[in-house]
Amino acid sequence: MGRQGRLREAWRSRRQGRTIGTFLESCLLAAAVLGLVSTSLPLQGQTPQSLSQVKTLCIESFGEGKVAGALREALIKRLRKAGVYQLVEDPGGAEALLKGSGEIWIRGYTTTNWRAPATNRQPVYAGYLSVEVVGRNGKPIWSYLVTPDKLIWTSITDDLAGSMVKAMIAASQQSATINSPGPNNASIPTTLHGAGATFPAPLYQKWFQLFQQVNTKIRLQYEAVGSEKGLEMLADGQVDFAASDASSPDVGDSKLTTDYWRIPMILGAVVPIYNLPDLGQDLRFTPKILAGIYLGRIKNWDDPEIRKWNRGASLPRNEIVVIHRTDGSGTTYTWGDYLSKVSPEWKAALGTGFRINWPIGIGADGNQGVASAVQKTPYSIGYVELVYAIRQRLDYGAVQNRSGVFVRASLSSVAEAATQSAASNVQLPSSITNSPGKASYPIATFTWIVFRQHIGDITKGTALLDLLRWMLTDGQKQCSALAYTPLPNDLVDRELELVRSLK
Fold this sequence. Notes:
- The protein is of the alpha/beta class.
- Among the domains are: about 1-35; about 50-170, Double Stranded RNA Binding Domain; about 270-445, D-Maltodextrin-Binding Protein, domain 2.
- Helix content is about 35%, strand content about 20%.
- Strands 6, 7, 8, 11, 13, 14, 15, 16 and 19 form a 9-stranded mixed beta sheet that branches.
- Helix 2 crosses helix 16 (about 490-500), helix 4 (about 65-80) crosses helix 5 (about 155-170) and helix 15 (about 460-470) packs antiparallel against helix 16 (about 490-500).
- The longest helix has 17 residues, at about 65-80.
């Protein structure tokens, strides 16, 4: 079969009533064969061309406090030096507004004089800077979040501002765009009820609030109950859509393999978080270390295997307090999916699933529950989506990838994981854990929206399609401010085609 024949076959599968998995995978396969799925950076469903059209920019207040003021001033200084934008004080005279927020905190101390360590300690800082660029009409244009460079030669304030300006300049030089259709604005009021993953919950809460501002007759409710529970509620007819992070629809008791659409929405990262008082530096985790800790083989922080890869770190002798999810979790699925690929012992003993029969540790519900437990428990370790680590001011480690490089989770390293997975597969893969590439973060994943192929209530069906279109267009421009990575532009285009075909 030729390349055009493959594309016709993909669309024929839709007319023959195949499932979302078959149809969407067929479309993606055809798109890859025809060269429609890009395998080069940037993997972003944003609109860099819109940012490139902005010439005058007004920087709004970042809020109260010295840190907010210092970050804003550092960003202004860097932007003026770059000379890409004309900065104006009056919002009325700007083509776009830049809104920002950020925090800086002390993560520990390092000794500057080993002969007198108690009196010669220097603080080590952590933090983040998040920005959103919006038009004068309030429409989103671009967003991003940066964390400190692993080697900070300047102050952390200047480092964060410099990284942000580099990201803005790179985005303004890109010409890729996505189609951004407006909502239908159904005249009949309706309520959509969703439930599922806690992984994307911070973003979905923001998205749904903003969506309701432009779609005033649609009300949205979302329960962050975990992927497994959300899919069960969808199967039982309790909700209109579910959210799941599992790369396979055929998981546990929630096998929604027929009569359901399953569409990826964003990319995110699962990170190993830890609470080691005054450590003052990032830990490095190999697959052997992570599997060993959660299998109960590595019991103390000063274990030789940990010390081997973290030379110079002041590792305590304390026992490692292992914290894991107890609810049916897509984050757990991603964690197990990654470790099953890199550890034969893990695959044989524990495997992959919403729930894992943990041999060790303390359980907590949801990403927020794990983050809070680690924050309150000295010498503990856990795993959460990146935004929860940042929100809770938790340390998270660099993870060794397939190329042997230790990589921290970031927007760019997650995008690289998706890029490299697409490049090494004929079909865009559902699972992107342990992707190739020196710059790829190895515990990256899509997160999905799942809904019925046939919705009896026409008003609800129309409202849901409006929501999906918005999430795939304007929503993609806003996700990076919360440390989620937008979808590849070409994948967004394919998904919009699918959504349009459902009318």
